[in-house]
UniProtKB/TrEMBL annotation:
InterPro entries: L-lactate/malate_DH (IPR001557), Lactate/malate_DH_C (IPR022383), Lactate/malate_DH_N (IPR001236), Lactate_DH/Glyco_Ohase_4_C (IPR015955), Malate_DH_AS (IPR001252), Malate_DH_type1 (IPR010097), NAD(P)-bd_dom_sf (IPR036291). CDD domains: MDH_glyoxysomal_mitochondrial. It catalyses: (S)-malate + NAD(+) = oxaloacetate + NADH + H(+). This is Malate dehydrogenase. It comes from Gonium pectorale (Green alga). Substrate binds at residues 108, 114, 146, 180. Belongs to the LDH/MDH superfamily. MDH type 1 family. Homodimer. The lineage of its organism: Eukaryota, Viridiplantae, Chlorophyta, core chlorophytes, Chlorophyceae.
Length: 340
């Protein structure tokens, strides 16, 4: 089992940029859907999934703009057959899917929190997941739409309501937090980023994002102020991009990259090569019923949720500090479906 997907995934990304299938994983061709495929994340993510040798069929669904994206992506000379679907085509887009990736919904503008997106995105995610429950209930779900801390519980509750919930299949994508932590840690310590790993646990918003630099490899002992600055930069990474884009949205390219890495790990797991990734799933390792930690992804999705390992006092404080916000966001998501 790959103890960490990063080196395999970097090889995949390098192989993909050289000419795709060389060096990429094989296995049976999988049907993958991207819901929100014409968006800022959706378009580059659709391209990256078209480059993934584990994909045989790629459904590109959005409420507008998918014919153009599908025609464009479809010209890439890889084996996956890309097809665009509009509103009427959702059922067909989903039927037979092994993996459904959801980046549909509105992004933040400067001054907004991720929770400010709840009003619009909660309903979008609930309705799309309802369609997943109807048309491909066994598929693995990768949820990108914010606020992830709430949209994952929304997806779970919706599937529970329909009697098709399987906790092994629903994952909130927190890979961008790991990607950022690795980048910032490598930069700060003069390390080769390809050799770096940093687990990031908790959730995906502000203080709920907790990088565990004490468990980073290679190990570097950092002064307290540097550690604090790196932790805060990782927690505020999304806001850094939102501010830099100045009203034109949030992270799209780094997110598409992160989502493609995570989706690749899910497909590897489904195809019998277990991979360990940090992701936000139903969990019992803390007081929070959903929590991101290292998770073993295997043939049925989530196979094992790893515990947190040994935390430093600084990390224990971070864990304690995130709980009120994380628990409230989870409850808000649960009530959105249950209370309806
Ligand atoms: N998990 C993460 O780490 C992470 C990182 C970056 C962004 N995000 C989130 O991802 C979401 C999308 O961001 P973006 O920059 O791609 O936004 P965007 O506005 O560029 O794209 C969103 C797309 O979703 C589509 N859409 C809206 N309602 C839909 C529906 N009912 N069905 C299908 N498609 C629908 C829109 O037409 C649009 O094409 C946002 O909520 C953002 O906050 C999450
Ligand atoms: O920050 C955002 O709103 C988008 C995303 O969650 C991110 O971390 O970049």
């Amino acid at each position: 089992m790959a103890s960490n997907a990063s080196s395999a995934l970097l090889k995949w990304a390098q192989a993909a940029s050289r000419g795709f299938a060389a060096g990429a994983a094989g296995g049976p061709g999988r049907k993958v859907a991207v819901l929100g495929a014409a968006g800022g994340i959706g378009q580059p993510l659709s391209m990256l999934m078209k480059m993934n040798a584990q994909v045989s069929e790629l459904s590109l669904y959005d409420i507008a703009g998918t014919p153009g994206v599908a025609a464009d992506v479809g010209h890439i000379n890889t084996k996956a057959q890309a097809k665009g679907y509009d509103k009427e085509g959702l059922a067909e887009a989903l039927r037979g899917c092994d993996l459904v990736i959801i980046p549909a919904g509105v992004p933040r503008k400067p001054g907004m929190t991720r929770d400010d997106l709840f009003k619009i995105n909660a309903g979008i995610v609930r309705d799309l997941v309802e369609a997943v429950g109807k048309h491909c209930p066994g598929a693995v779900l990768n949820i990108i739409s914010n606020p992830v801390n709430s949209t994952v519980p929304i997806a779970a509750e919706q599937l529970k309501k329909m009697g098709v919930y399987d906790k092994r299949k629903i994952m909130g994508v927190t890979t961008l937090d790991v990607v950022r932590a690795k980048t910032f840690y490598a930069e700060k310590n003069g390390l080769d980023v390809a050799s770096v790993d940093v687990p990031v646990v908790g959730g995906h918003a502000g203080v709920t994002i907790l990088p565990l630099f004490s468990q980073a490899t290679p190990k570097v002992s950092m002064p307290a102020d540097v550690l604090d600055a790196l932790t805060k930069r990782t927690q505020d990474g999304g806001t850094e991009v939102v501010q830099a884009k100045a009203g034109k949205g949030s992270a799209t390219l780094s997110m598409a990259y992160a989502a493609a890495l995570f989706a690749d790990s899910c497909l590897r797991g489904l195809n019998g090569t277990p991979v360990v990734e940090c992701t936000y799933v139903e969990s019992t390792i803390t007081d929070a019923p959903y929590f991101a930690s290292k998770v073993k992804l295997s043939t049925e999705g989530v196979d094992k949720v790893h515990d947190l390992g040994t935390l430093t006092d600084y990390e224990k404080d971070g864990l304690k500090a995130m709980m009120p916000e994380l628990l409230a966001s989870i409850e808000k998501g649960v009530q959105f479906v249950k209370g309806a």
